[in-house]
Amino acid sequence: MLTRRSVLALGATATAVLACPSLGRAAAPFEPPPLPYAPDDLAPVISRRTVELHSGIHHRGYFRALNQLVAGTDYADLSLDEVASLAFQNGDVEIANNAGQAWNHILYFDQFAGGPSEPEGALAEALGREFGGVEGFADEAVAASGRVFGTGWLWLLAEGDALYLASTEDGDTPLPSGMVALVGLDLWEHAYYLDYENRKADHLRALIGRLINWQRVGERFV
Fold it and tell me: For the Manganese/iron superoxide dismutase C-terminal domain, which residue ranges apply (predicted)?
């Protein structure tokens, strides 16, 4: 059972698809959207070199592999979020991994668009109520990251006006939960190792406190 402020591993047994209309709605062949900023705009929190490798190599690589895998299958007629959700449910692991990582990274890069900003309105109230504010969320996210063994993601999810901190392994997505993904924190080493080496906690605190555009995040919290 989900509880507020809890950290959990989201399974992929449900059939719900996340309500996030701006992400992953086009059918194959899938293409990553262009970055909504220049590669050096996230520095010094994320260097230009990390952005180029993360977006240009890793993210595009997931799309390239996914298009090869779904060609000639029923998945080719579905949207990216549908593929990511259904492939996990169907046990099509290779398709699910690449679709999940393709989808995850769209949200990841989008949350920095427009530059950093503080949360406002209903989102600020919810963050204060559930975590004591952005700093409290950062504290819980850092603690949760230490309980994710190996690669994975941390998510700030919304269901109505309630917020949840959840984790997924490897390339899994929160899509099966049916909740709205507000923030996605990439725990794969390619997201931070060039800039922070093994200091993952420092990287997460910098993302949350200095880089996320909370107003943009708030647009999904409706």
Answer: 119-220
